[in-house]
């Protein structure tokens, strides 16, 4: 699976990082960024959960 964060939509709630710190990190302003754009199978459910919990729907998941 692939995952992306839209920097124009991210407001910096950090839920993605809190739920899936192996896939996301925070930049200097506290906005989520992806550190594993190609998510391994063992982290896929965690990353998808992070995307579902984004209040701005700034995270895109694709196969």
Automatic annotation (TrEMBL):
Keyword Transport: yes
Annotated ranges, domain 4Fe-4S ferredoxin-type: 1-29
SUPFAM superfamilies, per the entry: 4Fe-4S ferredoxins
Molecular-function annotations in GO: 3 iron, 4 sulfur cluster binding; metal ion binding
Essential cofactor(s): [3Fe-4S] cluster
Domain of life of the source: Bacteria
InterPro entries: 4Fe4S_Fe-S-bd, Fe-S_cluster_ET
UniProtKB keywords: 3Fe-4S, Electron transport, Iron, Iron-sulfur, Metal-binding, Transport
Family matches, as PROSITE patterns: 4FE4S_FER_2 (PS51379)
Protein name, as recorded: Ferredoxin
């Amino acid at each position: 699976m692939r995952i992306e964060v839209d920097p124009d939509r991210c407001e910096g709630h950090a839920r993605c990082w809190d739920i899936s710190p192996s896939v996301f990190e925070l930049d200097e302003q506290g906005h989520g960024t992806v550190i594993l754009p190609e998510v391994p199978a063992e982290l896929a459910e965690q990353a998808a959960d992070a995307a579902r919990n984004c209040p701005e729907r700034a995270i895109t998941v694709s196969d």
